[in-house]
Give the backbone structure.
Amino acid sequence: MVDERLGAFHMSVASPHRRALLRAALGGIVLGGGTSLLAGCAAPLGQQARGTPAEAIATEGSAVLHNGLGGRGAAVGFGTRHALTCAHVLEGGATGARLRRADGAEAEAVLVGRSARMDLAVLCVPRGFLAAAPRASDLPREGEAVWAAGAPGFGPAIAQGRVEAPDAEMPGFGRGFTARMPALMGYSGGPVVDASGQLMGLTAALPSPGAAGALAFLTGADLDGLARRDRQVFVLGIRRAEAEAQRLLGRTAA
């Protein structure tokens, strides 16, 4: 029997239309997941991203993160020698992982920083392995269209949705925003971009999963996500993530 209450969070929301503190004891689940034999049924990430705002970052600025058990999530380029991902994507005690780009090129990544303030890990990668995507200069707007890229066990690797809460905080995960989109298990640590392809944040968690979502976390077969297009997804804001990465690296530039 799977316990649906895998955790709890409190989210604060502020938007031009409303300012309220929403406190809900909802089950929380992270978006990391193992691969499936059905993964081969999906088109390659680069092909799925073609013609979308996520094309550039999906093919040049992000990679699937493998830990020896299959795809567990994704990572995004940060500077010339680093990558960012969600800390929960790495197995407990892991000191590194293997990254695979959309073109099939692979590289070893070494963990150089894990935040105690948010769900963030910094990896050292070979110079130039991942291109740093342009960062969004504006804060998210309610209703704004967004695109996410990830590494699901099976199903689409590109998800489109809209910003729901432009300013949200999830204790243990950090501050960012929530969006409604059909993100699947395996999107954790992957990029979320705006209509111009600028990086807005990293996909981090599902605040309110159901039993099928819990099963997906264990198996990589995200049945609930494939059936729904209105999932609430928490996205760790890129500005705060990068500031924390700078602090972890002890630098003023990545």
Q: What stands out?
A: Helices lie at 45-49, 55-61, 211-219, 223-227, 238-249. The domain at 1-14+26-254 is CATH 2.40.10.120 (Thrombin, subunit H). Residues 1-29, 34-41, 209-223 have pLDDT under 50 and may be disordered. The first strand starts at residue 9 and ends at 14.
